[in-house]
Amino acid sequence: MNIENTKAQMRKGVLEFCILSVLKEKDAYTSEILDTLKNAKLLVVEGTIYPLLTRLKNDGLLNYRWEESTSGPPRKYYGLTEIGQTFLNELSGTWTELSDAVNLITNQKQ
């Protein structure tokens, strides 16, 4: 079994939740989202995040707006929709339950 593949699958499984969480406080453009994820040691490449942001937008969880930049081309800022906020709240509850269950199982004395 390839441990790197398993680790990548685990990260991929929580990426959507993490992106929505990044956007819960304020709108952000893609580079800001990537930097936040990287600072948390969740390594993601642009080729992964752009299709995911598009899918989340198409699913009605995100919206975006263009904003002029003083240091280059306009930036696309993403933000949560009302549906996205509700979805994030549901995921947060599920994450807490799942995290508690995994911690209980993995921290058991044998």
Topology of this structure?
Layout: H1 3-22, E1 28-29, H2 30-39, H3 46-58, E2 62-69, E3 72-80, H4 82-106
How does this model look, in words?
A hairpin with a 2-residue loop joins strand 2 (62-69) and strand 3 (72-80). It contains 4 helices and 3 strands. It has a 3-stranded antiparallel beta sheet. With 110 residues, the protein is α+β, with helices and mostly antiparallel strands. The protein starts with a helix and ends with a helix. The chain is globular, with a radius of gyration of 16 Å.
Largest sheet: 3 strands, antiparallel
Strand order, biggest sheet?
A: 1-3-2
Can you tell me the overall shape? globular
Radius of gyration: 16 Å
* Oligomerization category of the chains in this entry: single chain
**Structural class by SSE content:** alpha+beta
Measured as a percent range, the helix fraction is 55-70%
Low-confidence stretches: none
Task: Give the amount of beta strand, in percent.
Answer: 15-25%
Secondary-structure element series: HEHHEEH
What would the average pLDDT be, to the nearest integer? 92
How far the N terminus sits from the C terminus, by CA atoms, comes to 24 Å
Total count of strands:
3
Number of helices: 4
